[in-house]
């Protein structure tokens, strides 16, 4: 068998374990010197690659240095938000495949979410159309957990663990004063409420804070919300509420849009900001109680302080599986997770046609949303608990701060 | 010697180690059964105590259960923001001391910051005036590190470690895209910039992000800021800026006040919000680049994910020292930290007259602020590095989330 090189790229928003998937792929590639030559990394994804930005991972992170990726957040290779044209006749495709051929690439793995799977779909379709032998596979990655045809996605478990533990800390903080207060915690998730739902894991006992959880899957009603908050005061003076950044009213208007103008990002998504701030003001104004809001912000996707060991191991597993699938000639597929059982928790990898994944979204099942749409049922807890398990010790530098690998 | 009881209270905003100080005091009290009877905790500080809220710490956290305090954030006893009247003739003082006598209290330790030291000052002055044998001592506590006559305060080290590691993660996140961007990180600190200064610890090498740091100790000039940001683009496409929530212009106007109305809290402090958001919009509008802001928010004071071992141990030490000082009859003092040397780092406890501490603020020395007021010099690094050292493993529950003790 002729030696071919492997190329790995990262795309979209970072997660705590996107570099663990990269580690898995590179480590697995090194196990096959008889089939795989070099392991290249695209710098800044497809966009950087088109500008000639690429690095040799074996030179950049030789030997055990590769393991630094396992506890480094962000995207080691750099990322991009770049949408390939719909028309496969566009010259960019020819340019890309010529570059692949020039570099002796046989296998291309792209680590990303929805939009990146769109890139995998287009490239694999173009490759097949042109009779290219280069295989193109997608490695799942998103804190939003919104990819279809997979039990969950790498990145979600660590983000969910960060949300659950941070919300638990915020609940403790909220409870120190003996006065009525409302704390709104705004959690990432434009259309899917998985990460906001993870807020319920923060409860230490039944009836504990967060007392209310609002997902974007169901319509948000401001009057019903205010009524629920008032009811909660009979249980706890300090009411903590988790809300998804993407909650909408019955007409589909984002709650944050009541507050400010919204623009569009390069993929045509609405840029959201401020539903927590809006609800804080609403509560203060209408209920006359102390209110504050906390936007968990980018730490949800870039903190390794709450890395889930399960998530990290699964990201590595997906990376390794992708290389094996590529060696077997699979193309146009995404590595998926198949849950075998909840207790004991057991998971294996599979492959799904990427065309059935890109541009679709998996949301929280409506039947899992309970308590007049303000809570999650047992199904969610059973689903989520295995994903946030296990602590990872992040190496520290001489100052006692987390030690990360970075590109030279 | 007659057995007297000890009473401990917590006041003001929580920190990651305010409960470690409580642990130190309670553990030390248990070492003296020949002198100290019961160890009581005020629930919700002076305010709750006046309503009769008190608990028996030996019953609530017997034996080794007390150790749970070492890794529990928030204020286990609950807190308050309550200012005693200036006039020592006010009947509240008599009420308080009658309650102390009724409970057989010989020693009262109040854990808190500036405003709580004001309470310690008034109570000890009243006690002396009335010839009471009850001693009243202050245990320092504040993430702001703004108490005078002490090298630093318990709570600062862990908050600084949280800020430094989170800013380091945000810098990694900011650097993933190959486009110009500005990330404003808004850090707590109304008048003292200690915590914002800790942002510079995030740098992995000289010239690394955060490239600019703005403290409230020096006037903030919007035009100079925009010029500095533009200059930074020659070094790095992704510019990360740390700003204190309390930055002000040369006329003393808070930058956040350009954006919104500001109210007053019960101590007459201005309630600030949004200088990060304001600067984000300023950068986007004036420089036409991608800009975002991240408010680190309450996790700075309530997260134990980045607990500093040094800070935790020193909080315990201060708690223990307070009990010993109380047994020796000291009153109207605050436990202070005296740094013996930087390398090796060595610290001991002392006592300072609380009247010289309350209602004063220690700010970052102007000579430590460098780079046209956008950076910190070596003095700060030498000062701060020992305080953020050492990792603490927080126990986890069956779901892998941090396990805290809480009042029944």
UniProtKB/TrEMBL annotation, chains A, B:
It is an enzyme of class 2 (transferase). The record marks 115 as: Important for catalytic activity and substrate specificity. The active site is at residue 144. Mg(2+) binds at residue 114. Non-allosteric. Coiled coil: none annotated. NCBIfam families: PRK14072.1. Homodimer. PANTHER family: ATP-DEPENDENT 6-PHOSPHOFRUCTOKINASE 1. This is Pyrophosphate--fructose 6-phosphate 1-phosphotransferase. It comes from Blautia caccae.
